[in-house]
Amino acid sequence: MVLDATERVPLLPELDGRNGSNRAAGNHALITADNDLDALHAWLARFVDTKTTFDNYRKEAERLLLWAHVELHKPVSSLTHEDLLAYQRFLGDPQPASRWIMRKGRKVARSHPNWRPFAGPLAPSSQRQAILILNAMFSWLVHAGYLAGNPLSLSRQRARKAKPRITRYLEEELWNEVKRTIEQLPKETKREREHYFRLRWLFSLMYVCGLRISEVNGNTMGGFFCRRDKDGQERWWLEVTGKGDKTRIIPATNELMVELARYRREMGLAPFPLPGESTPLLLPIGGKHRVLSRGGLHAIVKQVFERTALRLRQHGEANAFLANRVEQASAHWLRHTAGSHMANQDIDLRHVRDNLGHESISTTSHYLHASDDERHRETEQRHKLRW
Hints:
GO terms for molecular function: DNA binding. By secondary structure, the protein is mainly alpha-helical. It has helices at about 35-45, 50-70, 80-90, 95-100, 125-145, 170-185, 190-210, 215, 255-265, 295-315, 320-330, 330-345, 350-355, 370-380; strands spanning about 225-230, 235-240, 245-250.
């Protein structure tokens, strides 16, 4: 079952949605589902090939389904506009907490008795994202002929505001402190060296290439390839498939390839990967060739930030501001750091856009075309690791 958490919550037969008050009349349905659970499965089936999207969409559908049954004793197909307004408020403060919020500490599997749908209250941005996903879900169910109307379509549509300037990144001083934390790690035993070189490689990869965590655990070392530019110089690139299943190539600078070779030697591998090699971009300690989870990668990065904050505090109150800031950082800050530092080094914004895989700089940037060789050359010259 896709919505497997519903197996542990008794969904009463009378709440399965067969007779939901918002069910479409007539025989014009484009899907075979005759109850809410099957209808939600039909909607989610469209995203099974895109794990990140599927996981996010399943999470929001499951939360709404459980809330409707447990709190309102209603099927999803009977929810009204007013119900959805109440749900939006609920997302900001899921109560009772013992029923809805996970205990603090180690995360548990969805099948575990202590699993809960929420880690805590959702931030405003996460609330908006949840509602956007549910709005898309309801719209699709209407289009599929399962529902008569979308109860979220009555919500006030706010004009899009220009996105504020990125502030969640590490300034040069703080980025240097993070590197210093990694450099000061012990390197006496084989395990300590493996831990050190893995962190050094991960932070180098995310900084030079501006990767998302999902792109680190969703791609392999076989994505590295070498080709000659028009001047006959060999240049390394990394091909990744990222958000929206879009593939892009990113300059792999000489510094990055040195870090890769160093990490691979430590793991008992040849310095450079072969085309199509299935080795994950980051390996677990111990060298097993399996993919680390996104949660595991987030935890690895977060631990480095926390160690940096602790080290800064040990050097006096003067560092309190920097310590507090790096303590707030997450893995995605490294992507923002990469983009911000590239821009600060006056790398052409078209090259920054293509390195990060953004859709565009602005509407007019759809008409701009940057040379790949030029992009590699400029990234190589100006976007430095400087370990």
